[in-house]
Design goal:
- With 247 residues, the chain is mainly beta.
- The chain is built from three helices and eight strands, in the order ααβββαβββββ.
- It has one domain: Porin (Beta Barrel), CATH 2.40.160.20.
- Strands 1-2-3-4-5-6-7-8 form an eight-stranded antiparallel barrel.
- It comes from Ohtaekwangia koreensis.
- Keywords: Signal.
- This is Outer membrane protein beta-barrel domain-containing protein.
Length: 247
Protein backbone atom coordinates (compact mmCIF):
# COMPACT_ATOMS: atom_id res chain seq x y z
CA UNK A 1 0.00 0.00 0.00
CA UNK A 2 2.85 2.40 0.85
CA UNK A 3 4.46 1.75 -2.54
CA UNK A 4 1.15 2.36 -4.34
CA UNK A 5 0.67 5.71 -2.56
CA UNK A 6 4.22 6.73 -3.43
CA UNK A 7 3.63 5.79 -7.07
CA UNK A 8 0.42 7.85 -7.27
CA UNK A 9 2.13 10.90 -5.75
CA UNK A 10 4.97 10.50 -8.25
CA UNK A 11 2.51 10.40 -11.17
CA UNK A 12 0.84 13.65 -10.05
CA UNK A 13 4.25 15.31 -9.59
CA UNK A 14 5.37 14.34 -13.10
CA UNK A 15 2.11 15.54 -14.64
CA UNK A 16 2.60 18.81 -12.79
CA UNK A 17 6.06 19.19 -14.29
CA UNK A 18 4.59 18.57 -17.75
CA UNK A 19 1.96 21.27 -17.21
CA UNK A 20 4.43 23.84 -15.90
CA UNK A 21 6.79 23.21 -18.79
CA UNK A 22 4.08 24.30 -21.24
CA UNK A 23 3.84 27.80 -19.73
CA UNK A 24 4.95 30.56 -22.10
CA UNK A 25 8.52 31.80 -21.86
CA UNK A 26 10.32 34.11 -24.24
CA UNK A 27 13.77 34.76 -22.74
CA UNK A 28 16.70 32.68 -24.03
CA UNK A 29 19.40 34.91 -22.58
CA UNK A 30 22.59 33.41 -21.21
CA UNK A 31 22.63 30.34 -23.48
CA UNK A 32 25.75 29.56 -25.51
CA UNK A 33 25.61 29.21 -29.30
CA UNK A 34 26.25 25.45 -28.95
CA UNK A 35 23.37 25.02 -26.48
CA UNK A 36 20.96 27.01 -28.69
CA UNK A 37 21.93 24.94 -31.73
CA UNK A 38 21.96 21.54 -29.99
CA UNK A 39 18.61 21.97 -28.26
CA UNK A 40 16.73 24.20 -30.72
CA UNK A 41 16.70 27.35 -28.58
CA UNK A 42 16.49 29.40 -31.80
CA UNK A 43 13.23 27.71 -32.79
CA UNK A 44 10.25 29.99 -33.43
CA UNK A 45 7.93 30.62 -30.48
CA UNK A 46 4.21 31.09 -30.75
CA UNK A 47 3.20 34.35 -29.08
CA UNK A 48 0.01 35.46 -27.40
CA UNK A 49 -2.42 33.53 -25.24
CA UNK A 50 -1.61 30.29 -27.05
CA UNK A 51 2.15 30.68 -26.66
CA UNK A 52 4.01 27.46 -25.94
CA UNK A 53 7.64 26.40 -25.94
CA UNK A 54 8.55 25.00 -29.35
CA UNK A 55 11.86 23.43 -28.37
CA UNK A 56 11.80 19.70 -27.62
CA UNK A 57 15.04 18.49 -26.05
CA UNK A 58 15.53 15.76 -28.66
CA UNK A 59 16.09 16.63 -32.32
CA UNK A 60 15.63 13.68 -34.71
CA UNK A 61 18.61 14.77 -36.81
CA UNK A 62 21.06 14.95 -33.87
CA UNK A 63 21.00 11.49 -32.32
CA UNK A 64 22.66 9.86 -30.43
CA UNK A 65 22.18 11.65 -27.12
CA UNK A 66 23.47 10.91 -23.61
CA UNK A 67 21.62 11.44 -20.35
CA UNK A 68 22.98 11.37 -16.81
CA UNK A 69 21.11 12.07 -13.60
CA UNK A 70 19.51 10.77 -10.43
CA UNK A 71 16.68 8.33 -9.80
CA UNK A 72 14.60 8.44 -6.59
CA UNK A 73 12.75 5.37 -5.39
CA UNK A 74 13.69 1.72 -5.26
CA UNK A 75 16.54 1.98 -5.98
CA UNK A 76 17.95 5.43 -5.23
CA UNK A 77 20.59 5.52 -7.94
CA UNK A 78 22.80 7.34 -10.35
CA UNK A 79 21.37 6.77 -13.81
CA UNK A 80 22.84 6.92 -17.31
CA UNK A 81 20.94 6.58 -20.57
CA UNK A 82 22.24 6.30 -24.11
CA UNK A 83 19.63 7.38 -26.67
CA UNK A 84 20.61 5.49 -29.83
CA UNK A 85 17.80 6.97 -31.91
CA UNK A 86 14.22 8.13 -31.40
CA UNK A 87 13.03 4.57 -30.68
CA UNK A 88 15.86 2.69 -28.96
CA UNK A 89 17.88 3.40 -25.82
CA UNK A 90 20.07 1.67 -23.24
CA UNK A 91 19.91 2.63 -19.55
CA UNK A 92 22.18 1.72 -16.63
CA UNK A 93 21.49 2.44 -12.95
CA UNK A 94 23.72 1.87 -9.93
CA UNK A 95 22.76 2.70 -6.39
CA UNK A 96 21.10 1.56 -3.18
CA UNK A 97 17.80 -0.31 -2.78
CA UNK A 98 15.17 1.02 -0.39
CA UNK A 99 16.23 -1.40 2.36
CA UNK A 100 13.23 -0.60 4.55
CA UNK A 101 10.92 -2.13 1.95
CA UNK A 102 12.74 -5.46 2.31
CA UNK A 103 12.62 -5.80 6.13
CA UNK A 104 9.94 -8.45 6.10
CA UNK A 105 11.70 -10.45 3.40
CA UNK A 106 15.07 -10.35 5.20
CA UNK A 107 13.40 -11.43 8.43
CA UNK A 108 11.72 -14.37 6.72
CA UNK A 109 15.08 -15.44 5.28
CA UNK A 110 16.57 -15.76 8.79
CA UNK A 111 15.55 -19.40 9.13
CA UNK A 112 17.28 -20.33 5.89
CA UNK A 113 20.67 -19.27 7.33
CA UNK A 114 20.51 -21.37 10.50
CA UNK A 115 23.00 -24.16 10.85
CA UNK A 116 21.69 -27.69 11.38
CA UNK A 117 23.99 -28.28 14.39
CA UNK A 118 21.46 -27.57 17.14
CA UNK A 119 21.39 -30.01 20.00
CA UNK A 120 18.18 -31.74 21.04
CA UNK A 121 15.80 -29.26 22.67
CA UNK A 122 17.70 -26.23 21.35
CA UNK A 123 16.25 -23.43 19.27
CA UNK A 124 17.35 -20.15 17.74
CA UNK A 125 14.94 -17.21 17.93
CA UNK A 126 15.19 -14.15 15.70
CA UNK A 127 15.70 -10.80 17.44
CA UNK A 128 16.48 -8.23 14.76
CA UNK A 129 18.63 -7.57 11.73
CA UNK A 130 20.72 -4.70 10.38
CA UNK A 131 21.57 -4.10 6.72
CA UNK A 132 25.26 -3.21 6.77
CA UNK A 133 25.57 -2.58 3.04
CA UNK A 134 23.22 -2.81 0.09
CA UNK A 135 23.94 -2.22 -3.59
CA UNK A 136 22.07 -2.70 -6.83
CA UNK A 137 22.94 -2.50 -10.52
CA UNK A 138 20.60 -2.52 -13.51
CA UNK A 139 21.09 -2.66 -17.27
CA UNK A 140 18.01 -2.11 -19.45
CA UNK A 141 17.24 -2.11 -23.17
CA UNK A 142 14.32 0.17 -23.97
CA UNK A 143 11.93 0.84 -26.85
CA UNK A 144 10.36 4.32 -26.98
CA UNK A 145 6.92 5.18 -28.34
CA UNK A 146 6.04 8.79 -29.19
CA UNK A 147 3.05 9.96 -27.14
CA UNK A 148 2.81 13.53 -28.42
CA UNK A 149 -0.90 12.93 -29.00
CA UNK A 150 -1.17 13.14 -25.19
CA UNK A 151 1.40 15.89 -24.63
CA UNK A 152 4.26 17.29 -26.68
CA UNK A 153 7.59 15.88 -25.56
CA UNK A 154 6.01 12.84 -23.87
CA UNK A 155 7.23 9.33 -24.64
CA UNK A 156 6.18 5.93 -23.38
CA UNK A 157 8.72 3.14 -23.18
CA UNK A 158 8.91 -0.58 -22.50
CA UNK A 159 11.88 -2.85 -22.19
CA UNK A 160 13.73 -5.65 -20.48
CA UNK A 161 16.98 -5.92 -18.62
CA UNK A 162 19.05 -7.61 -15.93
CA UNK A 163 19.48 -6.72 -12.28
CA UNK A 164 22.24 -7.53 -9.77
CA UNK A 165 21.86 -7.18 -6.00
CA UNK A 166 24.37 -7.42 -3.16
CA UNK A 167 23.45 -7.16 0.52
CA UNK A 168 25.40 -7.67 3.74
CA UNK A 169 23.12 -8.34 6.72
CA UNK A 170 23.79 -8.87 10.41
CA UNK A 171 21.26 -10.98 12.31
CA UNK A 172 20.88 -10.87 16.10
CA UNK A 173 19.30 -13.89 17.75
CA UNK A 174 18.69 -15.72 21.05
CA UNK A 175 19.99 -19.26 21.35
CA UNK A 176 17.70 -21.23 23.67
CA UNK A 177 18.70 -24.62 25.04
CA UNK A 178 16.67 -26.78 27.42
CA UNK A 179 17.05 -30.32 28.79
CA UNK A 180 15.53 -32.48 31.51
CA UNK A 181 18.07 -31.39 34.12
CA UNK A 182 17.53 -27.67 33.39
CA UNK A 183 13.94 -27.05 32.25
CA UNK A 184 14.40 -23.27 32.44
CA UNK A 185 17.10 -23.48 29.78
CA UNK A 186 20.18 -21.42 29.02
CA UNK A 187 19.66 -18.39 26.79
CA UNK A 188 22.54 -16.84 24.89
CA UNK A 189 22.40 -13.75 22.69
CA UNK A 190 24.49 -13.92 19.54
CA UNK A 191 24.77 -12.66 15.99
CA UNK A 192 26.05 -13.65 12.59
CA UNK A 193 26.58 -11.85 9.28
CA UNK A 194 25.61 -13.09 5.83
CA UNK A 195 26.45 -11.76 2.38
CA UNK A 196 23.84 -12.11 -0.34
CA UNK A 197 24.49 -11.79 -4.05
CA UNK A 198 21.67 -12.49 -6.43
CA UNK A 199 20.49 -11.56 -9.90
CA UNK A 200 17.66 -11.93 -12.34
CA UNK A 201 15.71 -10.46 -15.26
CA UNK A 202 13.43 -7.46 -15.05
CA UNK A 203 10.65 -6.01 -17.18
CA UNK A 204 10.32 -2.23 -17.47
CA UNK A 205 7.55 0.19 -18.41
CA UNK A 206 7.76 3.95 -18.06
CA UNK A 207 7.13 7.47 -19.32
CA UNK A 208 9.63 10.21 -20.13
CA UNK A 209 8.96 13.90 -20.64
CA UNK A 210 11.42 16.20 -22.42
CA UNK A 211 9.82 19.47 -23.50
CA UNK A 212 11.77 22.07 -21.56
CA UNK A 213 13.94 25.08 -22.29
CA UNK A 214 16.64 23.34 -20.26
CA UNK A 215 18.30 20.18 -21.68
CA UNK A 216 16.74 17.81 -19.17
CA UNK A 217 14.25 14.96 -19.19
CA UNK A 218 11.95 13.80 -16.41
CA UNK A 219 10.98 10.15 -16.18
CA UNK A 220 8.99 7.69 -14.13
CA UNK A 221 9.25 3.93 -14.45
CA UNK A 222 7.97 0.69 -12.96
CA UNK A 223 10.11 -2.45 -12.95
CA UNK A 224 9.35 -6.09 -12.15
CA UNK A 225 12.29 -8.16 -10.91
CA UNK A 226 12.46 -11.96 -10.61
CA UNK A 227 15.23 -13.70 -8.64
CA UNK A 228 16.87 -16.63 -10.44
CA UNK A 229 19.80 -17.32 -8.10
CA UNK A 230 19.37 -17.22 -4.30
CA UNK A 231 15.58 -17.44 -4.12
CA UNK A 232 14.35 -18.63 -7.53
CA UNK A 233 10.87 -17.44 -8.35
CA UNK A 234 10.79 -14.61 -5.79
CA UNK A 235 9.54 -11.44 -7.51
CA UNK A 236 9.12 -7.81 -6.57
CA UNK A 237 7.88 -4.56 -8.11
CA UNK A 238 10.41 -1.71 -8.10
CA UNK A 239 10.65 1.71 -9.69
CA UNK A 240 11.00 5.42 -9.18
CA UNK A 241 11.15 8.90 -10.68
CA UNK A 242 14.13 10.94 -11.78
CA UNK A 243 15.78 13.62 -13.88
CA UNK A 244 18.58 13.40 -16.44
CA UNK A 245 20.74 16.10 -18.00
CA UNK A 246 20.80 15.55 -21.77
CA UNK A 247 23.88 16.24 -23.88
Amino acid sequence: MHFQKTLLVSIFCLLGVCALAQRPRTNNGGKSAYTRERFNYNATRVRGNKAKIVCPVFDKSKYPYHGIGVKFGDPFALTYKYYINKNFAIAADIGKPASGLYNRYFRERFRSYQRDTLSQGADVRYLTHTVKSDFIGELKFLYHIDAKIISKGLQLYVGAGWEWKYSKIRYDYIYEETDNSNPNGNNTIGNFTVSRFTQGPQAVVGIEYSYFQLPISAFMELEYFTDVQLDPGWSRAEGGVGLRYIF
